[in-house]
């Protein structure tokens, strides 16, 4: 009987711990700004905030997926540039 309770408790614990490691998605710097306004405003003044804009302005620029890991948070245009989540991971 005690073994059954132990199994149930263990399964519950695994479910709770496992859910905290669920897949998260990228939400973008605009959402981070809600709680981290000072950091967001500081980030806006950096080249990170304009990382893809610089590339697009160049006539020699060509899309290369290998650049995305550093120059974009995600392939989504709304998440272009080196945003918070590029280093800190998905925010949701």
TrEMBL record:
Coiled coil stretches, renumbered: none
Signal peptide residue numbers: 1-22
Domain spans labelled Cytochrome c-552/4: 31-89
Domain of life: Bacteria
Family matches, as Pfam families: Cytochrome_C554
Keywords linked to the UniProt accession: Signal
SUPFAM superfamilies the record matches: Multiheme cytochromes (SSF48695)
Protein name: Cytochrome c-552/4 domain-containing protein
Native organism taxonomy: Bacteria, Pseudomonadati, Acidobacteriota, Thermoanaerobaculia, Thermoanaerobaculales
